[in-house]
Amino acid sequence: RVMCAAVAALGVAISAGCSGGAPQPVTSQTAAAQLKVTASFYPFQYVAEQVGKDLVSVTNLTQPGAEPHDLELSPKQVAELGESDLLVFQKGFQPAVDAAVQTVTPKRTVDTASFLELKPADHEEEHADEHEEDGDEHDHGALDPHTWLDPTNMVTIAEHVRDALTEAMPAAKDTFAANASTLVGELKKLDGDFRTGLTSCTREVFITSHEAFGYLARRYGLEQVGIRGVEPDTEPTAARIAEVQKIAKANQVTTIFFETLVSPAVAQSIAGDLGLTTDVLDPLEGLTDQSRGSDYLEVMRSNLSALRKANGCS
Fold this sequence. Notes:
Layout (H helix, E strand, L loop, with lengths): L1 H8 L25 E5 L2 H11 L3 E5 L14 H7 L4 E4 L5 H9 L5 E3 L10 H12 L17 H18 L4 H25 L7 E6 L3 H7 L2 E6 L9 H13 L4 E4 L6 H10 L2 E4 L15 H15 L4
Parallel strand pairs: 1-2, 1-3, 3-4, 5-6, 5-7, 7-8
Helix pairs in contact: 2-6, 2-7, 6-7, 7-11
């Protein structure tokens, strides 16, 4: 069997299925020969699939259309996590995953919080003083978890996933390196498109339903204003809504952005009151049938187009 010989040459465990059945291309691996990779939610699934290709089987813990902040894991999912060759996650983003890692020990982990610098949430920085004046006990130490919306952070994540997969399957080092190189090239091109596309804009401020775009805004010289903070399911106060309306008028904002996994009602209400349009800015926490693109790169380019239109970029 040509395939079995190829798999054996890679030093990978051979599936019992190699003994029979229809022949497959050498580039395809049986399920038993693939590394089991678990991603905590979509962006990490995308990276693992692009770097691992046929050599990995990737499980996404967050179901399509579900809000990853609210993830809960079944005992079966936790047990399977302990059998993973690699878990890609971000500590502090999904409490259920953090708890599971304390319960079981995946063979390897890539924790993006261990090598990316998590920034304070925009709303925390801007309004800490006013909270103190009001006697508000709000937690000023909140960090913005949405690192993946800066394509340069995704480059770093891809490199760490490449190294972890290489450690798990050393004989496939060159394959993982080539796949990662291709992905990194695409991410760097995306970064370049954002830098070019957002250089000359009529306005820098954009308003979103929740503060998911702080890393993107910092990278490309824009200013994010969130109706909600970094938690998408927190209802804004009447004072916050009034403040957002004031900011919109002062900065001649044209568009109030909402997203695919959170109710657009508040964003639509603010836009209606001010006579503004609404549009989608997707934080890419998961793909659905309503997503404007089939993968990370396509959705990010849709975000770029929406920002350019809303902010009058030439």
